[in-house]
Amino acid sequence: MIVWSILMSEHQIRNYINGQWHFSSAASRLDVRNPATAQVLAEVVLSPADEVDAAAQAGQAAFLEWRRVPVAERIQPLFKLKALLEAHLDELARIVTNECGKTYAESAGEIRRGIENVEVACGTPILMQGYNNEDIARGIDEHMFRQPLGVVAAITPFNFPAMIPLWFLPYAVATGNSFILKPSERVPMASERLFDLIDQAGFPPGVLQLVNGGKETVDALLDHPLVRAYSFVGSTPVARYIYRRAAENGKRAQCQGGAKNPVVIMPDAEMDMTTRIMADSAFGCAGQRCLAASVAITVGEARDAFTERIADAAASRKVGYGLDEGVEMGPVISAASKSRIEGLIEQGAREGAGVLVDGRQRAVDGYEDGYFLFPTILMDVPPEGEIAQTEIFGPVLSLMHAATIEDAIRLVNARAYGNMACIFTSDGETARRFRNEAFAGNIGINIGVAAPMAFFPFSGWGESFFGDLHAQARHGVEFYTQTKVVIERWPRHWSRQF
Description:
Layout: E1 11-12, E2 15-17, E3 20-22, E4 29-33, E5 40-45, H1 49-66, H2 71-74, H3 76-87, H4 89-100, H5 104-121, H6 124-127, E6 131-137, E7 140-148, E8 151-155, H7 165-174, E9 178-182, H8 189-201, E10 208-210, H9 215-223, E11 227-233, H10 236-248, E12 252-256, E13 261-265, H11 271-283, E14 293-299, H12 302-316, H13 335-350, E15 354-357, E16 376-379, E17 396-402, H14 405-413, E18 417-418, E19 420-424, H15 428-437, E20 442-445, E21 461-462, E22 465-466, H16 473-479, E23 481-489, H17 494-497
Parallel strand pairs: 1-5, 8-9, 8-11, 9-10, 11-12, 13-14, 13-19, 14-17, 16-17, 19-20
Antiparallel strand pairs: 2-3, 4-5, 6-7, 7-23, 12-22, 15-16, 18-21
């Protein structure tokens, strides 16, 4: 077991293969930095293909035994893992804040949502049940069973380093697969600590494995003949790449891509509540979440009331190091990300948007080296402009206006992404129409972040998702299993039949 302190001293991140911790032989390494301080926290290796192969081989050997373990026994280590996650929630939240930059409350909330997925996966004995019919013909019965795939892998992003691996991992192993995690090389520390807890939970060697790395590591996973399925969360270009390469290799994949989430604000919305929720949605986690509100579309008379309120909320939001008291928003993940977002703000201004609240060129006292970008609001964003369609993935909210709900829905649907769409209104008929017509897989009614609970699938449409079965709940169970149909006859006396 690795010995951890709350803030952790600088160390090299290890791989976890076949039940053992290993230092990688890779020469390529990256620094892991605290985004609030730019301090180096750790060094992560970019594992080569031979280490991916070692994990895949160990996973295949473990799978052949693990799949025969009764499902009621397979979930027992998950119960232990849930208890360990609960006991170490504070420690994990501090790790996430230090490597990812979000506030402590946001980090703790992320871990709580991850734990919920472990809880739901403990219901796999029910979730993976098949079905049957007796006497489909005289003396013949038919059954459908769900069986595991084999070795499966997940490639996860920087923005939720503790939660997103738990969208996949519990369902994969509960259904009888072995599982390899390749976390983002920007935030490998939470995954390392997670696997330290997994090591204590009692899973057999090879059932769960951790391989750190970059593109070479990902490609080795995608091309390995023993790896049968892939789960991914990240940008749309990478999601499309992984989905295509997996398909070319005859594998199944579920790939969550980017987003440009619109929120419609009707004149009858309760403006004070709406503003608070919208500020949390747009600027929470520094806007670095796939369900962040990125476009607010005011309808009719809602324009002036909402614009004034959201500008005040953005300008007054307290930005700083996520472990400091009272901080409401942390930094973005890297200096490169900050520079990219600032460039997109400038592009929006060139396209004709007004910079109502400008979060650039500001620093946090005591953390001048951090990657801080304060909340920013672009107003009158042209719907035909590139910035209206581009995922900024930062604390930037674009404002648009529509005369009617019909016009607002057209703006909502005039984009390639379909991750989330929300509406704030007091009118049930308007809300019902919106939920029926809006092009998105996750719909919020008077909700700013329409994040499904662990017992519902995390839906996504259009360029926000490539695949058929989403993460979480029954979709997760179905993704990690394949169906087998058995048709059987048991004549009492074969000699009388022939």
